[in-house]
Design goal:
This is BZIP domain-containing protein. Residues 68-94 are annotated as: Disordered. One of its GO terms (biological process) is positive regulation of DNA-templated transcription. InterPro entries: bZIP (IPR004827), bZIP_sf (IPR046347). The chain is mainly alpha-helical and 195 residues long. The protein folds into two domains: 1-59, no CATH class; 71-153. Helix content is 73%, strand content 0%. It is rod-shaped, with a radius of gyration of 59 Å.
Length: 195
């Protein structure tokens, strides 16, 4: 806010032109005579802050001024206490956050170690699985070959058992067995083995 001395130094035409700041409303604008009269009285920065006659000039008694001073001191002390409590709460919250961050970092390290262990187990399981699949394929191939061999042996045995009566020497013959001629069932058995 402008003091009266500063207001006297201002050009009123410039203030009223709309380009500057006008500290008064249009209804309460003081006249030049009022401004001049105000400059003749000594101005103090805060007439209510001094004791004695100045307090009476402000309309306050010494008791009221003392009560006001005590009230200000209580407010300052309360503000200081509130600020101290606020700082303590901030510090406590900061310590809690630091503890939480440390706990989360430790948990992250633990989880990373567990993840590495699980990855190693998974890799070993994949290797075992691939080995077992290869073994299973080899065993399945051997099983098919064994079944085919067994089927051929059975077929050969059946053919031999059918051919024995034909191999007996003919009466009065030369003792040479006639050539074996397989029956229609033998061709079907051989075809099923080839598939």
């Amino acid at each position: 806010m402008l003091s009266l001395q500063e207001a006297n130094g201002l050009d009123l035409d410039v203030m009223g032109s709309g380009f500057g700041f006008t500290p008064w409303g249009p209804d309460t604008c003081p006249t030049l005579e009022q401004l001049m009269a105000a400059t003749t009285t000594p101005s103090s920065s805060s007439p209510c802050s001094s004791a004695g006659d100045a307090a009476e000039a402000c309309g306050m008694t010494l008791e009221e001024e003392e009560a006001e001073r005590r009230r200000r001191q209580r407010r300052k002390a309360s503000n200081r206490l509130s600020a101290r409590r606020s700082r303590a709460r901030k510090q406590q919250r900061l310590e809690e956050l630091r503890g939480t961050a440390a706990r989360l970092r430790a948990e992250k390290r633990d989880l990373a170690a567990r993840l590495g262990l699980a990855a190693r187990h998974e890799l070993a399981a994949r290797r075992d699985n691939a080995r077992l699949r290869a073994e299973a394929a080899a065993l399945a191939r051997r099983y098919r070959e064994a079944r085919r061999t067994l089927a051929l042996q059975r077929l050969a045995q059946q053919l031999r058992s059918r051919a024995r009566p034909a191999l007996q020497p003919a009466v009065g013959g030369s003792g040479v067995a006639p050539a074996f001629v397989p029956g229609p069932g033998a061709a079907v058995g051989l075809a099923s083995l080839m598939t």
